């Protein structure tokens, strides 16, 4: 007898948008596919907490490719002799610090001292090795730090981990450091006393920026 082919069975496909529903059944509603997560925008910077302001005015950055032997710049102890624009000597018959004189007007003395500090740092001096004294107006950093009180100001001096700026009136309180830089930016009447105290506090090098060169030599006993 002839074989009757079996009717093919119809299987429901997996539910989805292309599924063919069986007879009499309602096609399921496809669930929406979540879209990509929105990329979070940049976080706004946190508002600064109230309190003490940041550091005071920074020294100007040293010019690129500055020569350590350029005219009018101090030389680190043991380096080549300075040019004719800056004289270098030591007090005769003494074991005191090397003395370097940098010509500058009273208005330019502070800037010359800042450049001297930059060069000293470039040559390898540690910031805590350097004390900067002004005979006239205070350096802006000292003015800024003193606005928080003398206790905080002198605590930074005692820490000895950074360049310290002080006025002539404070030189007697300042501790010795390997290098002392004096900016002669005023108060010529007290210059002799300031220079003597500065020399006492300079362990290896005393740099004097400005002032009458002959008077400075006479006070410090430095040769021409």
Overview of this protein structure:
There is one protein chain. By secondary structure, the chain is an alpha/beta fold. The protein is built from 5 helices and 6 strands, in the order ββαβααββαβα. It has a 6-stranded mixed sheet with strand order 1-2-6-5-3-4. Strand 1 and strand 2 form a beta hairpin. Helix 4 packs across helix 5 (213-220).
Radius of gyration, in angstroms, nearest whole number: 38 Å
Strand pairing plus helix content: what structural class?
A: alpha/beta
Which runs of at least 5 residues are low in confidence (pLDDT < 50)?
A: 10-20, 27-72, 76-84
Please bin the fraction of helical residues. 10-25%
- Mean model confidence by pLDDT: 73
Features:
5 helices; single chain; 6-stranded mixed sheet; alpha/beta; 224 residues
Write a brief caption for the model.
The chain has helices spanning 109-122, 140-146, 150-159, 191-201, 213-220, and strands spanning 87-90, 98-102, 130-134, 164-167, 177-183, 202-209. It is α/β, with parallel strands linked by helices and 224 residues long.
